[in-house]
Design goal:
Layout: E1 2-8, H1 12-23, E2 28-32, E3 45-47, H2 48-53, H3 56-59, E4 65-67, E5 69-73, E6 80-84, E7 90-92, H4 95-108, E8 112-115, E9 119-125, E10 128-133, E11 138-146, H5 153-157, E12 166-176, H6 179-182, H7 185-189, E13 190-196, E14 203-209, E15 213-223
Parallel strand pairs: 1-2, 1-11, 2-8, 5-13
Antiparallel strand pairs: 3-7, 4-7, 5-6, 9-10, 10-11, 12-15, 13-14, 14-15
Helix pairs in contact: 1-4
Bound molecules: flavin-adenine dinucleotide.
């Protein structure tokens, strides 16, 4: 079977493209190395303009909650910026459910989903593009869309990815909030970022409270 478009990676970019292409009657394959639902280290904050552009996100209840405030703290904790608004500043999603929801919408629109196989290579194949999967099979497609994230195999194969000598290390967890915290609207709606520059950790520590969950994580940057 030869597809019109094969999309590598079923994160938000890949599944959004798959949904839109399938709605236009384009024979689309969505390839993903993991299986859903899957975790993705992410604060889960969506800019409000995303909701205006892709109205189906709210219509399909993919938003967990809305954040109306944020705080940024300096590394010494002596200064902070506190910003509050009466309207939502960003929409909050849980990536585990958000990404799965977007994939479901893409499949409903007619995209074919194939999970559990990594795309390992890309070659010319019988006048089309051949994508080699980790199970040894090859997929044929007229076009390939690389939506396989920051470490994109597709970008490397076509020479778009430059050598990188920086590394980002991220530790993150979604924690269910106890009732006392859930009921505290201030804690619930305020995203916090702590900037770390005077310790071994150079980066940020962040906390994004949601409806019943808080996503917390730290991100540090270093040279390889
Ligand atoms: C700690 C942290 C916090 C963040 N917080 C926010 C935030 O609050 N708001 C925000 O907007 N952004 C945030 N981001 C950035 C956000 O996560 C990314 O911009 C977003 O996930 C990019 O979406 P994508 O669809 O392009 O790629 P991804 O979400 O990375 O999806 C790529 C998909 O491709 C698959 N894949 C990769 N290689 C292959 C392969 N060879 N074969 C098959 N499948 C493959 C992966 O499994 C993955 O499912 C954060 C990132 C980090 C690290």
């Amino acid at each position: 079977m030869r597809y019109d478009v094969a999309i590598v990676g079923a994160g938000p970019a890949g599944s959004t493209a798959a949904k839109i292409l399938s709605e236009k009657g384009i024979n689309t394959l969505l390839l993903e190395k993991t299986t859903f639902p899957r975790e993705k280290p992410c604060g889960g904050g969506l800019q409000m303009r995303v909701l205006h552009r892709f109205k189906y996100i709210e219509e399909h209840n993919l938003i967990d909650s809305y954040s109306t405030a944020f705080q940024i703290h300096t590394s010494t904790m002596t200064h902070h910026v506190d910003f509050h608004h009466t309207k939502p500043l960003q929409a909050m999603v849980l990536r585990k459910t958000f990404d799965e929801g977007l994939v479901t919408l893409a499949v409903r629109s007619g995209a074919v989903l194939r999970c559990g196989n990594t795309v390992q290579d890309m070659t010319n194949h019988k006048g089309a593009i051949g994508l080699m999967l980790s199970d040894g099979t090859t997929i044929e497609s007229q076009f390939v869309l690389g939506a396989d994230g920051i470490w994109s195999t597709i970008a490397k194969k076509i020479g778009m990815k430059q050598e990188c000598n920086h590394i980002g290390i991220c530790v993150y967890a979604d924690t269910r909030l106890g009732n006392s915290i859930s009921k505290n609207s201030m804690a619930k709606n305020t995203a916090c970022i702590f900037i770390c520059s005077q310790t071994d950790l150079r980066g940020t520590v962040g906390c994004s409270p949601k409806k019943n969950t808080s996503t917390s994580g730290s991100l540090s940057f270093d040279k390889l």
